[in-house]
Amino acid sequence: MSPSVPGPTAPRILLLGGTAESARKAAECGLCVVNVDKPVLFEPAARKHCAQTHLIDYQDIGLVTTLARALHQHAPFTRVLSQTEAGPLVAGHLTTVLGIAGNGVGVARVLHDKLALRDLLNTRGLGSVAARRGTSCQALRDFVAHHGGAVVKPTKGSGSLAVRKVRSAGEATEAWDWLASYGVRHFMVEELLAGPELSVETFSVDGRHTVLAITGKDNGDGVVALGHVVPAELNQEEASAVAALTCRMLDAVGLVEGPAHTEVILTADGPRVVESHNRCAGGHINELVAMVHGVDLERLTYRLAGPDPVTVPEPAADGAAAVRFLTPPAGRVESVEGVDEARAAAGVVRVEVKVEPGQDVRPLHWSEDRSGVVVVRAENSAAAARRARQVAESIEIRTEPSEQEPATTMGELLAAVDEVLDPFAQDPYTHGPSAQDSLAQQEGPHACAPLSSTPPATYG
């Protein structure tokens, strides 16, 4: 056993998609980590922080359930956790199957299904937003004509994948054709909300929710985030309204514990929830929260699996921090300049560039298409956002446009990161309840439907 791995008597967790960093943090919290990750995504450096590593597709519900049951019978887990975008639904399912503490499949399903969440919020009167399941081009045109604009998006997914704004009825046919060519089969239509875009970073213990930060988002004219800043520039009344709605939403969903990342738009009629996820935020937001408020939400999550009660610290703001993403024009990279100067600039914490000459930059379809990031600190939010933008603009990534952009489907983009939107739909042995039905079920070891008995593969 590696010196960095806690002993066999330490609390034991099943970690889905554990990176080297997340496995290290869990081990440093005194946990015995059993990591299950997809072979193509596995980071070998994670192994030294784990008691066991199993390389399988954890979105294969039958396979991962068989494995989890066998491991739990041998040495029980205290939690099943995941910090990935694909993992929380599977973690909720396994939590219910194993009958252990945490957010079960009912919570995970309703957060994973955006239309189910919208229906729940509208039913509970928590910031009504008109929405319906996508059915036909004419229905989309009528919806846009009635509401003055719409957003079409898959009912499941993250990273702004396959999300599109439709600002007029005249754009409906084009949007409908795009959905078909992009391979989007199950989608929803909801009214286009106007106002600042935010996200709320919370942590819950025993059903009590604490708002640790409200993040400002800059999406430009599109749907993919170009930058984030913590804290968002809000007055006290606005911040209180956003926080109150978020906590009421988490109550309605039934979130028991752990982090949540909730996207909100502050409209003229008050805040409206866009969607929510029971995991830490992506896009370096957790890093910004730690820099400004001194709270690492990921470490706090792992402490839930330990023997001691978890107390959420009061967030005390220290200045501001921001990220700005690098989004060069699509094409073949010819050169990258200004990186060293950017790293040496005042206020810069980190600069990451993901591309180099000879590589291709894809059009900005979703967050995975961003080419790098600049992280900065400053005395206030406006200064941090401005500085991050300035430094990002000083980095020049020259690209040569391709003669013709190949058609890209949502399935191809997901395949590139080895992810499926609905793992339950992939498993013919699993007939789990709908998200709406899950809310009415009693969670426990018998709440899950029959699963595959396919034996696990060989693990490394």
TrEMBL record:
SUPFAM superfamilies named among the record's database cross-references: Glutathione synthetase ATP-binding domain-like
Residues of the ATP-grasp domain: 118-306
Pfam families named among the record's database cross-references: ATP-grasp_4 (PF13535), LAL_C2 (PF18603)
Keywords from the UniProt entry: ATP-binding, Ligase, Nucleotide-binding
Spans annotated as Disordered: 422-460
Molecular function in Gene Ontology: ATP binding; ligase activity; metal ion binding
Domain of life of the organism encoding this protein: Bacteria
Residue spans of biased composition, Polar residues class: 451-460
Classification via PANTHER family: ATP-GRASP ENZYME FSQD, FUMIPYRROLE BIOSYNTHESIS PROTEIN C
This protein's name: ATP-grasp domain-containing protein
Organism lineage: Bacteria, Bacillati, Actinomycetota, Actinomycetes, Kitasatosporales
